[in-house]
């Protein structure tokens, strides 16, 4: 593991790419290098995880028995959290190794009886029944094909129970920002997502920020060109400078945030508690 992370491949084959990530990092410590910033140091990925956790926290207060679908569940970090709060959780991911690791972690945390993990492509999601909460964390930003993206949002909407809530955390800057785009990632402008959600009959009930500190997005496009010792020092400095800003102001500095949390509901549905 180094300060530069793993390079994006020239050709993006999603099932191959995510399985490779899982085999490299899913069982390594917390597994965050597989599901946050690919192969980056633990201190950096823990900062990402806690920024996400703080941003999602208001929307993950569930009642026991809540039916949850965690799409792109990775190693199960959100699935096990919600199962620990009494949710009945289905986690879906493209990678068999991610799913195997999620099952292992659910057993270690004694929530395996309230979790079920399946290998499925979100664009072709097909599960019996519906869900009170559908959660996706940095999933849509890796679906590059427009038709697959539209299909993924439609399949999630089709699985949302009346009055249910969809909570999606994605890279969604308020203005066009392509400098961090790679062959596996798109930072789509926020309005692109809002239009797509409206097209599928989803109503925006709330939107909040995650990480308004700009330092990461300034550094990351240039990181691989830096000598390793200097790159590690720069990354540590960026993490140190970003953390207090993101932790204190992430939720309220919505317009300046690189990521956004979208809280959605089907048009005409009753508000979910």
From TrEMBL:
Q: Provide the species name.
A: Steroidobacter agaridevorans
Provide any one GO MF term from the record: methyltransferase activity
Methyltransferase domain location: 68-164
What's in the keyword line of the UniProt record?
Methyltransferase, S-adenosyl-L-methionine, Transferase
Lineage, broadest ranks: Bacteria, Pseudomonadati, Pseudomonadota, Gammaproteobacteria, Steroidobacterales
Q: Which InterPro entries match?
A: Methyltransf_25, SAM-dependent_MTases_sf
Could you tell me which Gene3D superfamilies the record lists for this protein? Vaccinia Virus protein VP39
Enumerate the Gene Ontology biological process terms: methylation
Q: Name the source's superkingdom.
A: Bacteria
Q: What is the name listed in the Swiss-Prot or TrEMBL entry for this protein?
A: Methyltransferase domain-containing protein
